[in-house]
Amino acid sequence: MSLHPSFTRRQLTIRALGERIGISIDKRLLLACAILIGLGVVVLIAALVSGQVHIPVMDVIDVLTGNGQRRTRLVVLEWRMPRAAAAALFGALLGLGGGVFQSITRNPLGSPDVVGFDAGAYTGAILAITFAGGGWLVLAGSAIAGGLLTALVVYLLTWHKGIQGFQLIVIGIGVSAMLTSANHWILLKSTLSTAMAANTWGMGSLARVNSQQLLPSLWIALPVIIAALVLSRPLKMMEMGDARARALGIRIEAVRLSLMALAIVATALVTAIAGPIPFVALAAPPIAHAITRTAGTSLAASMATGAVLLSAADYAAQHSFAPIQLPVGVVTLCIGGIYFLWLIVKEARRT
């Protein structure tokens, strides 16, 4: 199969199969994603270099190319790489979830951690920790099931001849409040050791991530990301309005439900392994939009921004107060507070 790229002032078009298949990419978006990926690689290298055992950059690069001493390979590949790679992967998944829901609701507050889906995943995980021992596979399945069931409840409560974005957010916040109360009640009724384990996990941390968890997560995440990117084109058409998208042949509810399911699986997977990590899903899409200046929400840019945000936050969590390490959820919570303040001021100026 031969590819034939062509350039215009703002678009890169790639055609294949004798001009029968064509993909157009905004060049500003492509450049922004390349810069964000470059920043992510820089943060990844910094995470592999830094720590109680300092590894020079060239030694890290040597290990990544398949060489290096045994001790250096142990530190880089076994101790630091799983956490650094998990920060990038989970940040991308959170950015994906936030981008999908902000596009569907057409509201900057439309995020899984705001509308209750993270709380549902947390409920599923707490039930797994309390009644099933908390093995990570059981934890992952329970968190995904909890997120999907919560989404179904919110969707059914919101549905009235279609989905209204603001109504979904309000109902989601209400469901989130009820689930948070239920989570507290479950923990109060649990044994002390179970409650402590659930609370520690609930702060959101990447310190416990290892390669045995990361590799299966990657195999789950890849098809989710690919499917979401395939559906990103009809999602952009839906941003122009349901009536126009329907006139263009888009099956709105099928696409919307599929994207919501993919976004929930993405964020619930992160919650199952690292615990709830707030505000990355909320902040990544608007930051990506400010960088790319594209029309609507770009899922690719949102994922790249989420990866950089969570990687930088986890680096700060590890090294800002060394030798004390903070849970990454504490750092993202602080960043989220600043973001919320900026968002309120911005909305106040607009109105």
List the defining traits of the structure above.
351 residues, mainly alpha, three-stranded antiparallel β-sheet, 14 helices, globular
Oligomer: single chain
User: Major beta sheet, specifics?
Assistant: 3 strands, antiparallel
Low-confidence stretches: 14-22
Strand order of the largest sheet: 1-2-3
Terminal CA distance: 53 Å
List the helices and strands and how they pair.
Blueprint: E1 3-7, E2 11-16, E3 21-26, H1 27-49, H2 57-64, H3 70-105, H4 117-131, H5 136-158, H6 165-189, H7 192-202, H8 211-230, H9 232-238, H10 242-247, H11 252-274, H12 280-292, H13 299-319, H14 328-350
Antiparallel strand pairs: 1-2, 2-3
Helix pairs in contact: 1-3, 1-13, 2-3, 3-8, 3-11, 3-12, 3-13, 4-5, 4-6, 4-7, 4-11, 5-6, 5-11, 8-11, 12-13, 13-14
Can you tell me about this structure?
It is built from 14 helices and 3 strands. Residues 14-22 have low confidence and may be disordered. The protein has helices at residues 27-49, 57-64, 70-105, 117-131, 136-158, 165-189, 192-202, 211-230, 232-238, 242-247, 252-274, 280-292, 299-319, 328-350, and strands at 3-7, 11-16, 21-26. The protein has 351 residues and is mainly alpha-helical. The chain has a 3-stranded antiparallel β-sheet with strand order 1-2-3. Helix 3 (70-105) packs across helix 12 and helix 4 (117-131) packs antiparallel against helix 5.
